[in-house]
Amino acid sequence: MITVPGTDELEDLAAPSDTTAPAWRYLQSLSQTLENAKDSIAAFRAALEHGDTDLKERFSQDEPVDMLVRDRARLVDVLLIRAWELRVGAHAHELALIAVGGYGRGELHPCSDIDVCVLFPKSESTSWQPLLERFLTFLWDIGLEVGHSVRTIDDCQRESLADISVATTLLEARRLAGPELLFAAMKQGLTTERLWPANEFFEAKVQEQQARHHRFHDTAYNLEPNVKSSPGGLRDIQTIGWVAKRHFGTDTLDVLVAHGFLTRNELHKLKTAQAFLWKVRFALHTLTGRREDRLLFDHQIRLAKQFGYEDATYTLAVEQFMQRYYRTVMDVSLLNEMLLQLFREAILTRNTEPVPLNARFQIRNEYLEVAHEDVFARNPSALLEMFLLMQQNPQIRGVRAAAIRHVGRNLWLIDEEFRQNPRHHRLFLDILRSPLGVTHALRRMNLYGVLGRYIPAFGRIVGRMQYDLFHAYTVDAHTLFVVSNLRRFAMPKYDHEFPTLSRILQALPKSEIAYLGALFHDIAKGRGGDHSELGAVDAEAFCLEQGLSRYDARLVAWLAKHHLLLSVTAQKKDISDPEVIREFARVVGDQTHLDYLYVLTVADVRGTNPKLWNAWKASLFEEFYERTKRALRRGLESPIDQEELVRETQANARTLLAQRGVEPHAVERLWQSFTETYFLRHTPEEIAWHTALLVSREADEEEPLVAVSTQTERGGTPIFTFAAQSHHSFARTTAVLDQMGLNIVDARITPTADGFSLETYLVLEDNGRTIGDPTRIHEIEQALRRSFPLRELSPPAVTRRAPRQVRMFSTPTQITLSTDARNNRTILDLIAGDRPGLLSEVGKVFMNEGVDVHGARIATVGERAEDVFYVTDTAGQPLTEAAGARLHQKLTETLDRKV
């Protein structure tokens, strides 16, 4: 019998520096155990389970994760080598067993891929094939899921040439067993002289990284990042290692110090980052029992607790943990940028003479560099000037690594004296006023640490997350996305995206006011208190310090204080009510404030979460903006009244109906049963659509009318129903629409004088789009028609499950009731955990309590539903105090029980 390799052979494979360590002695003992066990599947399974249990125990004792990762690889080495000798021993002189990829590097997490390559020489004989199949089956039986390939050296060359990922995997090959000469011949066949020269390899890996980053929206600050593949993750560190290995032929990053690519401090920072990310990944695998690299919400909470974080006064433990994560990947991103830029120079670029820009900076090989090493010490203002120079010289591709390093060493110069210097104030404002590159400059300033030093309050929000589904990014990343959105409004080449907003921003007297409002609107997050109020104080002080006029400083502060006002009012109040418009216009005061607030609001919502913005919000905000603009134009002392607004709306609707050939007398007869409220709450286009449908019905037709329109001027798909009044209708209709996977964003229910109900629901598909497919429209209409005979029965149940992320949160039900005496109704504000069937459950409670719904504004804020209902009792009067208290109790009991 051929025995398992002894201690000397194991040392050749992946021996640690300290072979007297308990883990190494355990592996030696394991080797002997497997040798004596011969062919027992049970013994191998027990060895694997015991080894993994031991690693988990050592991890729980906070043993350095780099030792654990490498010991996991050594454990697998022992198992594979022994199994190989038992199953393929007779052909050991022909075949080579090679570890590749991460396993080839000697790095395995608990559930990492275990990839091997079986290398065989050119030969007509395949007598080894049945034995190899038995070997792979045996590995599966003992609990090792191994990815494998079987290749000749020619196969390795051909497939590596065709696919950079194969070439990269084989670049890290490590022989486990078999002929050394065969393995050496394979390594020789994959050298840069034969395929993927260093320059081509570098370009391919950079393109691969760019494509990977793009899949994560080019940001490391996603809500549930991937610790391996997201920007700034482990794969970015590996990319550096691959390029270094191909260029220098080294297996470690330490050699980068010797070549001047890294300082010892930077190497320490990179290794510290890798260790932290390894620790997170190791914990994820241990926690889930599978190859899980995503930091999902539930994992974030458990890892924060496991790593010893505790809730503080204003920050949750999970937020502290994730801030550490985000700041770590920020370090990796910066080092990755520096190193790839250095490799580009070393591999691709011929060194050229520098082109001077001024006494402090010059351009070399299209990258900005300092003219001399002490430029920042002599001229601290250069720490801001460099970003302005890049805006003024768009041919510059980036900053040379040496310059980035000098910036990092001199950040301490940005102190209070620096921040008080008028020259620096002018430079910062010039950056904001530049016609090009504002967003890029601010992002680069943030990455290099300059922005957080110049605005200390901004430095405190770097990497700060908010543990909810509403905010998809960290506060600093979100802030810079808002600036980016504003910049798109400012640039004529993007006018086609948001024509109205582009026209407004480009007409503003000072666009930098909007950018400053964006920088400060969330700057006080995480301090406790009202972040809008605190941010306004910071904004005014900063702007006055920068030399802005008192009016401009107060305008920026006003934007920070009121940045939520337009969005909240539009989504939670009845903007068809002239009094709502009047109150909002009073706060805004003038057209200039309205214009700045409008562009900032849209940029903010679009930058909060890609899933939040949709055509309905765009239409709603624009309608609100136009109504307020009209109120300001008329003057706050002479507001439009309801009767005038009704007359105007009816006149416009008559014009549309006349164009459709609808008989005027039929229109007037129909409208006699319509209330004033109906004309206030619907657009002329909606009224014309409803009226044309109803006029065309037979006079004695009693069947309910259901129609879905493809006209989406309000940003959603309108669904219209007309039937006899029923307390059951809201619960029934919302249940049907919810079960069909539709998001209801607005509901208007208006009774007629003759006992019918006009109901309009505005809906979107689950992906935020309107409905245009005729088949889908027919399905919706049929489902609603089938539901009408159920009017006296319980509404249909909604069986869709809530998404995984939503189920992670528990939102206590909050209900506020207020009387709207002017409109003779009660306004019910509801905050509850969002889930399928919520509106139907609310509707059932309304039905059981004798409450009529006249309208609803539906808003989903991440995991929370924030809905507003306009209700009355069955007599059309506001709810009494007793009825309101009873409704409050029933809703709370029902919704909290359903969670």
Describe this structure in words.
This protein is of the alpha+beta class and 899 residues long. The protein contains 41 helices and 17 strands. The strands form three sheets. Strands 9, 10, 11, 12, 13, 14, 15, 16 and 17 form a nine-stranded antiparallel β-sheet that branches. Strands 3-2-1-4 form a four-stranded mixed β-sheet, with helices on both faces. Strands 5-6-7-8 form a four-stranded mixed β-sheet. A hairpin with a 4-residue loop joins strand 11 and strand 12. Helix 7 (153-162) crosses helix 8, helix 21 runs antiparallel to helix 24 (475-490) and helix 27 (531-545) runs antiparallel to helix 28 (550-561). It starts with 6 loop residues before the first helix and ends with a helix.
Entry summary:
The chain is α+β, with helices and mostly antiparallel strands and 899 residues long. The strands form 3 sheets. Strands 9, 10, 11, 12, 13, 14, 15, 16 and 17 form a 9-stranded antiparallel beta sheet that branches. Strands 3-2-1-4 form a 4-stranded mixed beta sheet, sandwiched between helices. A 4-stranded mixed beta sheet has the order 5-6-7-8. Helix 13 packs across helix 15 (317-347), helix 27 (531-545) packs antiparallel against helix 28 and helix 37 packs antiparallel against helix 38.
Principal-axis shape? globular
What's the total helix number? 41
Q: Give me the count of strands.
A: 17
Mean pLDDT: 88
- How much strand content do the residues show? 5-15%
How is the biggest beta sheet arranged? 9 strands, antiparallel
Share of helix among residues?
Answer: 55-70%
